Every structure is written in structure tokens, then in C-alpha cells.
Amino acid sequence: MASAPKSDSSPPVAQRPRARPLRDVVDYELLFDCVHCGLCLEACPTYVVTRAEMDSPRGRVYLMKALAEGALDLDADAVRHLDLCLECRGCETACPSGVRYGKLIERAREYVERNVRRPWRERIRNRLIAALFPYPARLRILLTPITAADRLGMRPLIRKLAPAAMRDWLDLIPPRAAPPPMVLAPPSAASAAAPAAVVHHGCVAKVLTNAENLNTEGALAAAGYRVARMGRTVCCGALDLHHGNFARAKQFARANIREFQRLGDAAILSAASGCAAAIAAYGDLLADDPEFAAPAREVSARVADLGTLMLARDYRFTREFRAAVTYHDSCHLAHGLGVREAPRQLLRAIPGVTLIELNEADLCCGSAGSYNLTERAMARELVRRKADNILATGADYVVLGNPGCELQIAAELRRRGAPVRVIHLADFLALAIRGANA
Amino acid sequence: MPTGAHASLDSATVAELRAILGDDAIVSRPTELKVYECDGWTIEKNAPELLLRPRSAAEISAVLKLLDRRAIAFVPRGAGTGLSGGCLPVGAPVMICTSRLNRILAIDYANRRVEVESGVVNLHVSNAVRGRGFFYAPDPSSQMACTIGGNIAENSGGPHTLKYGVTTNHVLGLEIVLPDGEIAELGGPTEERLGYDLVGAIVGAEGTAGIVTRATLRLTREPEARRTLLAIFADVEAATRAVSAIIASGVIPGAIEMMDQLIIEAVEAAFHAGLPRDAGAVLIIELDGIAAALDAEARAVGELARSSGAREVRFARDEAERATLWKARKRAFGAVGRLAPNYATQDGVVPRTRLPEILREIAQIARRHALRIGNVFHAGDGNIHPIVLYDERDPDETRRAIAAGREILRACVAMGGSLTGEHGIGVEKISEMPLIFSPDDLIVMSELRRVFDPAQRANPNKVIPAPGGCVEVAAPRRQAAL
Asked: In a 10 Å sphere around its CB, with 0-12 CB exposed, 13-18 middle and 19+ buried, how is residue A324 labelled?
């Protein structure tokens, strides 16, 4: 470290060499939005757990800047701390300076993937995730043996025999014994004058939690929307964005955009808030695409959420549904799309529902796309914290807006034998609309 | 051991520290240390050679005993939100971070006090007691992240200190690990202290007396009601006239905060708080107390603002409107990040009546250095926060920003004010200390510090400038990050 003499009258000045050109780590100018105030620290789940600066958004932005300027090399530590980020974007909510952290970390991850050769275990794992998750048909095949084992009551045995690394993965798959979610009647034809909405059915959600898609459509129809259906649905691309694979993310985005354009001006929803946020970012993703830039912006602007649309139609619940409910803010709904109040307001509007506020409601549960498969220790730590907070409310239901959170939190509550039911907002609305426990 | 005779860090010491704390509490690789090279004062940067992340006072005590035997200097760090470089290592190879000492130990409503570890976040104290109608009064703008330990080091303030006082008025007792590793209890849970006010000597000492590990804090009863006003002015002169008029009338508002046009522009871009972009200045005035008296008081204050030249006075109608105003104010510093790549927040004090003069002076300094300077500050107590915008990639502009900051401070002192209201001296203002204090004053302070830290190994080269201004020796590792 060079030292500079300092005199009393003029400030010390050590010229920083600018010899090295900037590395293509992130959009460099965006880094200067960060003023290093640190207000993001406590909004960051990984900082809350490790309490170390390099696991904070401010620390990661600083690492990205040092990498871009060539002051640091992309060593194992830099990769480790960038990998540990959940991309929950809680820091964006806290940031007074408008740092576009999500955009920064996505680019930084692409840089990491371009420049780092990972150990073989990680390579295989990441390839498996990339090859399976965006394709519902492949996922179904993968799940067949587990479904079969469940039918034979052999899940505990398999779990016992599985290596520790697989156990957390297995736990995420809901057992057959879980009560099947109630599904609203399929939407009937609404008048052509009604506002239109379309639900992107997603990939994992379609296989593991399809009721949420159907109930989102059912609830929209009940509130007077004309529900359109996509012809061909491909993955939204969120997974690839998290893993630095921009090329395939763009490919997916273009296919979805074509399909959404076909559906006119229908509001675009997803039962998975991660997918909705990814679609809302298509405009950014394809900003330099000569053909798709404008349609991408237009599609992104159409992204909406169930709570807000229900409130917009002034939907009234006619039946009573008695329940103590708490609400977990899924990251990409709260931090990505800025939707916090609408779902709560909707829940409070259900006769018989008592909404109990959840401590740290908008702190990530650790699911974060495929994070709970790649960063198991941190994911586990966060879901324990989430479960503690949920149990402290004494609620019967924890309502949320993302299947990833649902699988993650439900797995932890099952491990604890806690009787709290984890339920997607759409499924809960289905119960409330039917007045199922009245 | 004479002053300045500090040893360097060797691998045997690192190994012993590792044995005391365990691997997960030792940060020694350059990539990880890099992020600790500055706090909120980013003009100067210097990474520690080693970072320790202890979990308890006992661990800190063991660490300091070892460092004392080896004559190695250290610098404490909380959340690193400070604005004067207080936790920048200057001749201290080891940094000790208190962020893991984050437990709230005991809440005692009957005696209105709370006992916390020093790494607890300021806002978390208020959050823990709000349900019972209490809060912790000092509320620096960084309260959602800054730690109580850091607040104690800098004697932090905040908007509501106009009425409630600064940190030192709210710390009843402390546990501090002295630089030789001894754990000392100062003050105590009772309101009346006997003997010298040693707690008062530690609060604001900027970590030069040791590492505070625990504090007993005073809880304040939430006022029964609040009225929050927004007064809109054509220029800062009129706004500052209103401040003096309100204080002179005998009313003590909970807070009087001023924002000038540049800041209004920044917070509107960030939060859409509904501030008028064409205003020259706004005041956020908050009155609190017994509900029955507040409406009349608020009307009177509104009238005073109008008669001082306010073109409009708005009353926050509900808690949501109040929260929006405070969010705009509290996050104003960060919002300024939208106007320029970098900024330096100054922190000076002038007698309230001289606010118009200092603001004129700041405007002239800005013109002279061709810089943009915004003002957002605690007008009620004359604590100004000029925010100097610059771009660190332009070395000349950075130099001008530093020079402008110094001129502002000199102007404050010339008007009978002070160098810092709440951010502390840190490295930023150490060379300005002789503007306020005579050599004798500084020697007395230095001797007081030696009571706690005879070898001056706790956060060396801070607060008290080396005699004779021989800063080369005092600050061997300091560098501006230009």
C-alpha cells in the first residue's frame, strides 16, 4: 500500500493509475450510483446472517468496482461473495441512491461464468439445473421415481439413504400426503369488453404447484377479467439471468414476447413473482435488440400482480373464512415489483381473516430461484429464521406470492412438525372465495 | 512505551489471534479486506492488514491483551456508516469489527432503560420497544444501519436531538474493553452519577479509549401526539429567519430540518415526496407532546413561518404523510447520489442566528471552486450539512471538493461555531482541530486519553492532531483515493 505524505494545508493526493483499461464486469457507470452510505446493510439477508461487509450489497458493489477497475483479480474470495448473493434485491428497496443492484449482480455473474472454471461438482450441478428446470416435461420425468416412492410410503427411507447434499433437495418436494389445494372452476367466457389478463404458467410451478396457476386465473375471472391463455409457454429466463447465461435468457424472452404480443394488451401475471419480475425486466434485457427492444418494453410494462388487479376491480368477498393469517413478502414481488400493500389489503378484505404482521416479512427465505440448491447452508439459515418469525405470529396460514418460497418454507415447517399451512395467495383466495371453512 | 512506538503485525500474532477467535472471525485475505478500506467517508482509503470479527467482550478482551503485549495498534469499526473516516486505519494494522455483538440484552420499561451490545443497530433498539410506547431518541440518518457503538464513538445526533439531546444524553452506563484488555464498567443504570463523568469522556472519543462492548441506554416515552409541518420558502434566507423566529418564540419543536433546492430536487427524483421542486428551501418542523396543546402550537408555528416569508405551510394529515416527509429527509444524503457520482457530507455548527450568513458563505465557496453544494441539515440547532458533489475520477474536482469542505469549516469556526455537530473528527477534520483548540487544550485532551490508553494504540492518529502538525509521522499510511 503506497503511502502519501500529507501536509496541513493541502489534502494528500495519490494519483490512482488509470493505465489498466476497465474490465467488462458490469455497466461501469451504474456503480457510481452507490455512495457507500451503508443503508443497505441490514436489508441484506446474507449480511444479517454473516454480519460481514463482503456479504453486504455495499461490499459486493465495491468488489465489482475493484474488479472492473483491475484493482482486484477474480479470485476464489471474490467469486464466493458474489455467489452468496440471493439476488433478492432487498437492498434496492433500502437504497436511497437508486442503485440498480439487480442489474449489476446479473452482469457480474455473467462475468464470473465467462472467466471462472468451477470445480466439477458445481459444473455438473449447474448444468443439471440449467437442463432440467426450464423444461416441465423433463422435470416430470425426474420426479416420477419420487412420486412412486411416496405412493409406497418409502420417502423416509430414501431420505435416510440419500447423501446429506440431496436431503435438502428431497425435502423441497411436497409429499403426497399434503392436502390437495382447492381449485376454482375454470374461467368461463367473459365479455369481450372486460379487461384481459394472461397467466404465464412457469416451469417448476407448472409441475409442482399448478393449482396456483389455475387459481390465479380463477380469481381473476371471479373479479371480472377475461382470462387469455398462452399458446406456447417457455421459461421466463429468470434462472438463466441468475446464473449468468444471458444468451438463453434472451432466447426465452423473445419467444415469450412473441406470444404475449399475440394476446393484445392483456395484463401479464405469473403465480411465481420471480418470473413476473423477470418478464418486467425484458425491456432492459433486450434494450439493444433492434427487433425486440420496443416490444420487450411494451410487454414489461404490462406485468401486473394478482392483488392489485383484484383490488382494481373492487372485488368483494361474500363468504366468511375464519383464519389467522400472516403474509410473507416474496422478494421479487416486494423488492422487484414493489408490490407490498395490495396483497395485504386484499387479505384484510376477507371477512373472518385476521392479518398478523410478520417480523422481517420482506427478508428472503433463502429459496431465491435455485439458490436453495446451490447455497444450501445459507438457504437453510435463512429459512430457519423465517420459520421462527412465522411461528412467533401464531398464525394458521402463511400466505405468499411465489412457489419457490412456498416449497422452501413448507419444507422447513414440515421438518419442525409445525402445523402452519404455507399457501400461495391464489390458493388462499380460492379458499376464501369458496368460503371453505365456513 | 512512548507514543507512536507501535509494532507491526507478524504471523505468530496472527496465529495466536486465530487460536483465540477461530477461523471464521479472522479476515486476512486482500480481496476480503478490500471492502473494509473505507466507511461513508470515501475520499480516503486504507485497508487494514487484518480484520477481526469477535462475538463477545470476552473475546475482545483476550484479543486486546495479546495486542497490548505485542504493542500492536487497532481500530474499532461498527457498521462503517461514519462520515468522517473514524474507522479508517491510520497506523493501525488490526481492525476489530463489533457487528456480531448484536444482542439486545435486557429491556427494563419500569426504569426506562435498555441494555444492548455495542453492535446493535440504532433503529433496532427503537423497533424493540415501540410496541410499548418507547423509543431511543438519537436518530441519525443512518439509523437503519449504524450501530450503537458507532453512535457512542461519534456522539451521534439526528433530527430529533434538538429537543431530546444527542447520544451522550442517552447513555447511562458502558462496558468498555480498555486497550490493555481490561473490561471496565463505567457509569451505571442509575440516573445520578457520582464523581467524574467518565461515560461522558468516552462518548465522542471516537474509539480512542478502547472498544465499547455494551451500553445501558435511556428509553424515551413516545410523545402522545405529533404534528409535522412542511413550510415552503422562496429562498434559504427566509427559511432560516423562520427557524430563529420559532426558537425565539419559546417553542421547542422535536425537530426543525431544512433542505435547499438542490436537495429537494434529489429527494423528489428519489421518493416523490411531494416537495415543490420550484421552492428555494423547505423546513420540516415536527412538534410533539400532549395532544391537547399541539394544534394551537402548530398553528402558531405555521403563522411564524408565514410571517417569516413562507409562501405555503402544509400539515401532514396522517402518519403516512409524516412518514413520507421523514423518509425524504432521512434518506436525503443517499438521494444526492443521483445527482453526482460522489459527494462529501460536511458537518459544521454555527449559532442559529448566523445560519443565513453561513449559507451565503457556502454559496460563495461553491462558486469559487466551481462546485455544486447542497444543504440539508438540522436547522434548529445550527448543525449544517453541506453536501459537496464531485466525481472521484476527476482528481482536480476532488481536490477542490476537499478544499471547499475545509473552507466551510473555517467559516463555521470564524462565526463562533464548531467543526462537527455529530459526524466526529475522524481523519477528515483532524487538521482543523487547532482552529478550535489551543495547543494547551489539545495537550489536556491528550492526557485524558492517556488515562484510558497510555500507549495510544486505540484508533491512533484520530481526534487529537500530532503536536506541531507533523502529520507525516502521525499518519504514515494515509492516502487520498484520487
From this structure: middle
Among residues A285, A308, A331, which one ends one of the domains? A308
The interface predicted TM-score (ipTM) is: 0.93
Burial label for A356, CB within 10 Å (0-12, 13-18, 19+), is: middle
Query: Where in the sequence is the domain holding A228, given as residue range(s)?
Result: 196-308
Q: What are phi and psi of A209, to 5 degrees?
A: -140, 50
Residue A99 in domain: yes
Contact A35 B53 (CB under 8 A): no
Quick one: pLDDT at residue A108? 96
In chain A, the residue whose alpha carbon lies closest to the alpha carbon of B93 is: A1
What's the pLDDT tens digit per position in B54-106?
Answer: 999 999 999 999 999 999 999 999 999 999 999 999 999 999 999 999 999 99
CATH number of the B340-414 domain:
3.30.70.2740
Closest CA to B161 of B136, B186, B182, B179: B136
> What does the pLDDT read at residue B468?
54
At residue A407, what are phi and psi to the nearest 5 degrees? -65, -45
Delimiting residues of CATH 3.30.70.2740 domain(s) in chain B: 340-414
Among B97, B102, B481, select the one facing A16 at the smallest CB separation.
B481
The hierarchical CATH code for the domain B104-221 is 3.30.465.10
**CB distance B270–A96 less than 8 Å?**
yes
* Arithmetic mean of pLDDT, A258-273: 95
Secondary structure class of B472 (helix, strand, coil): helix
CB atoms A63 and B31 under 8 Å: yes
Q: Which of B213, B327, B284, B422 is nearest to A39 (CA)?
A: B327
B30 band by pLDDT with thresholds 50, 70 and 90: very high
**Average of pLDDT values for A428-434?**
93
